[in-house]
Write a structure and sequence with these properties.
Layout (H helix, E strand, L loop, with lengths): L2 E6 L14 E2 L2 E2 H9 L7 E7 L5 H9 L3 E5 L4 H11 L4 E6 L7 H13 L6 E3 L13 E4 H10 L3 H6 L2 H4 L7 E3 L17 H13 L8 H10 L1 H4 L9 H6 L11 H10 L26 E5 L2 E4 L4 E3 L15 H13 L9
Parallel strand pairs: 1-4, 1-6, 4-5, 7-9
Antiparallel strand pairs: 2-3, 6-8, 7-8, 10-11, 11-12
Length: about 350
């Protein structure tokens, strides 16, 4: 089974022109990404997937100097480019990465790839972004070539063709999806990618503070930021996936399936008067046939319904979840209290 990491990159960028060529401690950003990904032990080959535009020949030259082969394809239809690159190099398993992430950790890549390889017949898509817990810039997505080919055939929306895997993530009912969470905790609020000038300031500060060495990993950077919080502040407050959000038409919204919600509702309303004990939780408060009726889990400000759809939880349980769902401090306090009891006949300190 041949596992190929495909790093997509192009010169054009509306937010930070020529970001792939920006020097980072004497080497282009793309060279950092390719070099670090090449250290992944569970990847058989690394390929650069760029475009046929003349300007992107510079990226092919960078890859060639590192001994990495390239594929040039469509500038706009990135899904087609990734698929054809995978076919060109006979990939059985595709690892999708982006070139604007020079802090990619080969150990993280290996962990996500390893999760897929443990049960390749029982999963269609493994990533660390559903929901994200790793810093933005360590995203890894793994799928067999058969799934990539299915997406290539079925996805017709322009945004899905540009962002490659959004079709999978907005159609969870069609794919067997597995997510890998960061072992060190939830650091999804951190930005280790390159999309705006502030990101470049951050990356330069990190590499400079680590002495210019290229063999560091996620733990090294997290330790650095704990001791130097001002570095993390250089690009704090910038929303994750701004490029994807900017590409979506205002009228576009994911097509949701709420079949399981409706099934549960039909059962409950025959057992419970009005179907729920609290009016504010009832489906009459939302658009019937569109909004979910049952939520299964939450993380931070996001919740997932019983059909696997993801939402931003603005009601936040009508107010009390001010820190978000599953906040680690709150979770720890609850666990400690459970160990000594939660219901007493007298007041508890």
């Amino acid at each position: 089974m041949k596992t190929i990491a495909i790093v997509q990159a192009r010169i054009g960028s509306s937010r930070l022109p020529a970001k792939m060529l920006r020097p980072l401690r004497g080497a282009p950003v793309l060279a950092w990404t390719l070099g670090r990904v090449s250290r992944a032990r569970r990847v058989d080959q690394v390929i650069l997937a760029t475009t046929t535009l003349p300007e992107d020949a510079a990226l092919i030259d960078i890859a060639a100097r590192l001994g990495i082969q390239s594929f040039a394809g469509s500038a706009e239809d990135v899904l087609d480019r990734i698929y054809r690159a995978a076919k060109e190099y006979d990939a059985d398993v595709v690892v999708r990465l982006t070139g604007d992430c020079p802090l990619h950790d080969p150990e993280v890549v290996d962990r996500i790839v390893g999760t897929f390889l443990e049960a390749p017949d029982n999963v269609d898509y493994v990533s660390n972004v559903m929901p994200p817990t790793y810093p933005d810039g360590l995203d890894v997505e793994v799928m067999p070539i058969t799934v990539l080919e299915r997406v290539w055939r079925e996805a017709t929306d322009a945004a899905d063709r540009e962002h490659v895997t959004t079709y999978i993530r907005t159609h969870p009912q069609l794919f067997r999806i597995r997510n890998v969470e960061c072992e060190e905790g939830d650091f999804s609020h951190l930005r280790w990618t390159l999309d705006v000038p502030e990101d470049m300031e951050f990356l330069e500060a990190v590499v400079r503070a680590l002495g210019g060495r290229a063999d560091f990993g996620i733990r090294d950077v997290l330790a650095l930021l704990r001791n130097n919080p001002s570095i993390a502040g250089l690009n704090a407050g910038i929303a994750r996936n701004t490029g994807w959000m900017a590409s979506l038409p205002i009228s576009r919204a994911p097509k949701l399936t709420i079949t399981r919600s409706n099934e549960l509702w039909e059962r409950r309303r025959n057992l419970i008067p009005a179907g729920t004990q609290t009016l504010s939780k009832g489906p009459t408060q939302y658009v019937d046939g569109v909004a979910p009726k049952y939520l299964a889990r939450g993380k931070g400000s996001h919740v997932w319904d019983v059909d696997g759809n993801e939402f931003i939880d603005y009601p936040m349980a009508l107010g009390p979840i001010t820190l978000g769902h599953c906040h680690p401090v709150t979770q720890d306090a609850i666990r400690k209290q459970l160990e000594i009891g939660i219901t007493f006949s007298l007041m508890h300190p």
